[in-house]
Design goal:
Number of helices: 2
Strand content: 15-25%
Shape: globular
Number of domains: 1
Length: 118
C-alpha cells in the first residue's frame, strides 16, 4: 500500500463522482468545485456513488498520479452528511477510512495543554 507522509494534506470530495473520470476530469473538480490548488502537497480523494471504490489524485512534482482502491465485499464509510463539499481530514482519519472505520464517529480523548505541573 502507498504510504503518504504525515505532512501531506488529505481532502475528501464529499459528493459521489462518476468513476469514468480520469486525471483531467478530477483536476477540474479539484480546481472548480473544491477550489483548491492541484499543486500543493496534498491528496484529493473521491468516492463513487455506491462507495466500494476510491480514487486518489495527487501531484508528485513530475506529473499527476491517480491511485484507485476497490473493495470486494464492503463499502467505504464515506462522510456524506458533512456541511461542506470538501473535508480536510488528518492522516490518522485517512488511514481509518482506508481500513473501514467511520472516522466521523470516532472521538479521541480531549487533548490537554498545560504550562506547569500542580
Amino acid at each position: 500500500m502507498i504510504q503518504w507522509d504525515e505532512s501531506v494534506r488529505v481532502y475528501l470530495h464529499r459528493d459521489p463522482v462518476d468513476f469514468r473520470k480520469a486525471i483531467n476530469g478530477l483536476c477540474v473538480i479539484v480546481t472548480e468545485l473544491m477550489e483548491l490548488s492541484l499543486f500543493e502537497k496534498a491528496v484529493f480523494v473521491f468516492c463513487n456513488k455506491r462507495r466500494p471504490q476510491l480514487k486518489v489524485l495527487y501531484w508528485d512534482e513530475t506529473g499527476f498520479a491517480l491511485w484507485q482502491k476497490r473493495l470486494e465485499k464492503e463499502k467505504f464509510k464515506w462522510p456524506r452528511r458533512a456541511e461542506t463539499k470538501t473535508l480536510k481530514v488528518t492522516a490518522e482519519q485517512w488511514r481509518w477510512l482506508l481500513r473501514g472505520f467511520d472516522f466521523t464517529r470516532i472521538k479521541p480523548h480531549q487533548r490537554l495543554f498545560f504550562s506547569a505541573v500542580n
